[in-house]
Write a structure and sequence with these properties.
The termini are far apart. 41% of the residues lie in helices and 24% in strands. The protein is built from four helices and eight strands. Strand 2 and strand 3 form a beta hairpin. With 130 residues, it is of the alpha+beta class.
Length: 130
Amino acid sequence: MKTKTELRRLRENEILTQLDKFGILTVRQMQQMNVADFGKCGNRNVLRVLGEMERDGLLVSRHVGKKLFAPVGSRFGNWEHRGILIDFLIWKGWFRGANVERPIMHEGKEVIRPDAVVRLGGRANIVTGK
């Protein structure tokens, strides 16, 4: 049986992993993706957990009509575009296997850096907002 401290660390690691992957997430997005079992929690509990993590210096937040959470050192530029991309990936059910802003390389050179790359049926599909 795991101690409360171990369970807390596991939960924090899962949250930080998703923030590193997507860059910026809202409470609603974390609930929809069921990050750290937030899909079963209300907004108040999610905000409590994230607030504790922010006080511990594990993440940063900004309120812009809604509360945004990001890894430490992140800037919040282009958050609207990123939020729409994440909402789209959640809506399509592609958020688990998506690689966000990972460059596509050819012969050692970056060819393109799409918003997201999703593998469907063994094939890479590029998701871009342009």
